[in-house]
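On clarity, I found the account of how folds are encoded harder to follow than it need be. Since the whole study asks how a given chain folds, the encoding of that fold should be made plain. The format is easy to grasp once an entry is in front of the reader. For illustration, here is how one protein appears when written out as sequence plus structure tokens.
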Amino acid sequence: MDRREFLKISGTAAVGAGIAACKPKNQASVAVQIEPEGPEQMPLRDCAGDQVSILGYGCMRWPMIKDANGRDIIDQEKVDELVDYAMAHGVNYYDTSPVYLQGQSEAATAKALSRYPRDSYYLATKASNFSDSSFENSVKMYKRSLEIFQTDHIDYYLLHSISGMDAFKARFEDTGLLEYLLKEREAGHIRRLGFSFHGPNSGLADLLTLHDKYHWDFIQIQMNYVDWNHAEGRNENASEMYQWLDEKQIPIVIMEPLLGGQLADVPDAIEEKFKERTPSKSVASWAFRFCGTYPRILTVLSGMTYMENLKDNLDTYLHFKPLTEEELSFLDEQAAVIRSFPLVKCTGCQYCMPCPYGIDIPGIFRHYNKCINEGLAPNVKEPESQADFKKLRRKYITSYNEAIATVRQADHCIHCGQCMSHCPQRIRIPNELRRIDRFVNDLKKVTL
């Protein structure tokens, strides 16, 4: 069975859902124009003949269970169920890496996909040569990926997590790896070659100067309706990155459309505004519609750990309705409000883990953000002004101890800074841990 036949069977053969693919030259960067409600069908975007589902599966958050020795392992049975459901509903792009989930993701993804014809899906994996960027180790990693997937080609191969020209040269140019990968692309063992970018916009601008030399087939960036115009800290606005890539007609793969889950669990006041407009749709659906509205986007990755996540995203895209100009303005307003909340900008990617001192960094940030979003954070600076302060104080301290083991809490951080070099969001992690620890200590000291 060839790819075209499989897509027909799965109900996704036509690009005729009305979605513009890689945008024609000189076409303005405006929202995609399609009928608001069509037949149930996964929109496809074209990339040099590839018909890629607008919803892509990010394989960094597969469900985990404990084995007989208490070790965290991927729940293969659930992965198979998720992949089966995704494939049946037209999801054909699967993105993994040799380092995801302590190195387990590629094997689990391969097992699930091996039950399908190789030409019925697009495989994306990465040169994740952070710890050892030598030519020998990097080539070994690449060949190991081919071996795990029992394939002679990788559809979309990424130079993983580049922050700028210096890192690019050190890991890929100076080592000779890029020259090797270009030859692999020429030979057809890599069908599309690109990179994932985690850095300042100036770094992307530098890398784009190499486009005429290397002909990037696609580039993966972080994009969501908050980071579009309201990026904070060392992150920068995605709208500028999108414009540059659009002008060069480079297909874009989107990561972090939910900003690490933060846009699926927004503050209650903002959630009410979304529900007033679309009471039957999830808050997360707005974030996915936002990404799908822009025509240069090839696919939007989502790490769908649970079946309900997958079904919700499918509900958004199987009857895809792009955002209107008024809705885009509404989202921009909500993004500004979201940025006014004192959240930690953690996406839960776990690149900072394991912490050498056992700190549960993502767990601490997740608990804190959840309390802020749900209005459950005690006002420790002005406790008298909060009528239910005592109740909130007790609940926060109790829930913190339940969510995070005592030996893994923020007070055990020694500020070594090792985590910061791995954080794609460039969060000053020790500072944020210190802030949360100070908040918890202040809560314990308050007496009314």
Observations:
- Confidence is low (pLDDT under 50) at residues 1-36.
- The chain is about 40% helix and 15% strand.
- The first strand starts at residue 44 and ends at 47.
- The radius of gyration is 22 Å.
